[in-house]
Amino acid sequence: MYQTNSRTYFILLVYSEFTPSKWNNGYSKFLKRHLPSGTPDSVDHNEWEKFIKSLGGCDRPTQSFLHPKDLDRVRAVCSDKGGKVFKDNLCISQQPFTFVTVRSTPGTCGIRKVEQERKHLILACEVLENQCVPVHFEGNPTDQRPSNNARGCQSSQRRNQAPTFEPSWLWLIFTFLVTFYAF
């Protein structure tokens, strides 16, 4: 039977404090799912089926793809420059975006519909390393628009931040003492 000791717990604690947050993973996943390179420029079903298979994304029945050249505009939705607060940590773009929505039969990659759309984006945004970034693409079936009265995303509010770790001198001294006396 495997036994753990205080050294193992300490190593796990230090490792967990310096690993990227779950939000960093959320931003990476957002980019992979919605702004992958090689996105087709057409609405051809065969081209999209081949593309989605190459991404390994046959498990999601509805997928929306933005063009990678729009990355800066997409990121701006999570800021005062390009977005307004929709609700909670959701921001809505001030301008509409053109994107492609692909509907497929789950598990088969059989494409049922490829549709180019032009709508305001609704994105879940979180703060990562002092920048607010998108982590989720929310559907906007009725093309809701931003309220003129809504505040800009990230306008002097810092709620819904992704957890970050900035070691202080006190934490470093504590870590050294624990290491020195525990081992």
From TrEMBL:
Domain of life: Eukaryota
Polar residues compositional bias, start-end: 141-159
Transmembrane segment boundaries: none
Residues spanning the signal sequence: none
Location of the Ribonuclease A-domain domain: 23-141
Region (Disordered): 138-159
UniProt cross-references to InterPro entries, sorted A to Z: RNaseA-like_dom_sf (IPR036816), RNaseA_domain (IPR023412)
Coiled coil residues, start to end: none
Protein name, as recorded: Si:dkey-237j11.3
Organism from which the protein derives: Oryzias sinensis (Chinese medaka)
A Pfam match: RnaseA
